[in-house]
Amino acid sequence: MTRKYRVAVIGATGKGNYGHGLDTCWLKVPAAEIVAVADEDEQGRQKAMQRLQVATAYADYRTMLDEVRPEIVSIAPRWIDRHHEMLLAAIERGIHVFIEKPFVRTPREADEVIRAAEMRHVHIAIAHPTHYSPVLGVVRRLLREGAIGMVLELRARGKEDHRGGGEDMWVLGAHLFDMMLALGYEAEWCFATATQSGRPITPDDIVTGNEGIGPIAGDAIHARYGMPEGVMASFDSVRNAGGKPGRFGLRIHGSQGVIDIIEGIVSHVHILQASDWAGRSPQANWLPITSAGIDRPEPLVDEKYRDRNILAAEDLIRAIEQHAVPLCNAEFGRKVTEMIVAPFESIRQGQAVAMPLEYRDHPLQAWGAPS
Predict the structure, then answer these.
(1) Tell me: the pLDDT tens digits for 36-60?
(2) Residue among 50, 53, 97, 95 at smallest CA distance from 77
(3) Contact 90, 56 (CB under 8 A)
(4) Where are the domains of the chain?
(5) pTM (2 decimals)?
(6) Which CATH architecture has domain 5-130+307-328?
């Protein structure tokens, strides 16, 4: 009989809710059993009990962790202002964690979480679905084999809706930075500019962002990252500049072609093997990449390849049982956090900044953000 891991869920109705299904995914994992849920909102708590088919619920998540003693907890709220606090509470009790992105608000918070987790041998998995995609492994292989020639640059753009600029970089850029890291590209430095209504931002433009992300500034941001071997990466977002279909995703440009990745578990990935990056030649076509390779039908059709979180949940259990590290672990979370705040540190200093960042708190706090 398969062992069942006891899982608890932390939600926050009206303050990030339960993320993108970080609660219900456990109902579809045979090796897991949801035993309790915590939510300060009474109505939200009652709904979660019905949705998750549990009889035990708490208003205070710490009380739940102490009384239920789960082996795994889902920190599901999309808002990140309490992620650091919730992570440390779980780690102190030796409970493994599955957490919604973005990970935490600053490199210092990430440092503290990782240090504590290492001391208690706690595993942390982060909900970046594309990181767990079998298709991403195929992309890595194709890049190694030179399917698009020499890799020259990685271009990422957010959704560029009403959140365009700093908020877009936090909420959606996190996925794109994680893709870069998962493909083996780690930033060595960052240089960035940001504008508000077309003019360079100043400390007067700093506001408190939505979803607990902390201080942000700018309705347009343009960040450049230097990668090993001269590869360049970029993230750009301009408020209300998005369209339908959108540009949200990552494009890898090589000397002989382009690979386009849209975020998701079995991601929508395409390749254009043409050095002009436009496919002007009649022989040049965009072809799909699946887990089976270029222009082959996708064989992975089970529900877990459609759900955003089942693969991540199963991978966390694998890591626990094998004393290994989850695929998308806290170290990736720390590096993603640094890639998000590095543009603001570059703007604060007025120059390129080396990574990992020397300054571990939020750069906009040091630049004059309201406390």
Answers:
(1) 999 999 999 999 999 999 999 999 9
(2) 97
(3) no
(4) 5-130+307-328
(5) 0.96
(6) 3-Layer(aba) Sandwich (3.40)
